[in-house]
């Protein structure tokens, strides 16, 4: 039971981390002066979020391997 709860907290942590990047990032994207600048910022923001999710996933996998 505790393992299931721990997994749920881990998923909530991932969602919170994405929200912490996405909300200020979207404000930054919307402040762009032109459409090309907005697209560039959106591309950069999505790359940062994807890289963060990938790093977090690999860290979770490494932690799981250490436990088992």
What does this structure look like?
The protein has 68 residues and is an all-alpha fold. 91% of the residues lie in helices and 0% in strands. It has helices at 2-30, 35-67. Helix 1 (2-30) runs antiparallel to helix 2 (35-67). The chain is elongated, with a radius of gyration of 16 Å. The mean pLDDT is 85.
Low-confidence stretches: none
* SSE-based structural type: mainly alpha
End-to-end Cα distance, whole Å, is 17 Å
Number of helices: 2
- What order do the helices and strands follow? HH
Mean of all residue-level pLDDT scores: 85
Shape: elongated
Determine the strand fraction and express it as a percent band. Answer: under 5%
Structure summary:
The chain is 91% helix and 0% strand.
Descriptors:
68 residues; elongated; single chain; mainly alpha
Topology:
Blueprint: H1 2-30, H2 35-67
Helix pairs in contact: 1-2
């Amino acid at each position: 039971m505790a393992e299931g709860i721990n997994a749920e907290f881990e998923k909530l942590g991932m969602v919170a981390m994405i929200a912490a990047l996405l909300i200020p990032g979207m404000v930054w994207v919307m402040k762009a002066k032109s459409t090309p600048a907005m697209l560039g910022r959106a591309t950069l923001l999505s790359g940062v979020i994807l890289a963060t999710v990938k790093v977090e996933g690999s860290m979770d996998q490494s932690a799981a391997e250490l436990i088992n």
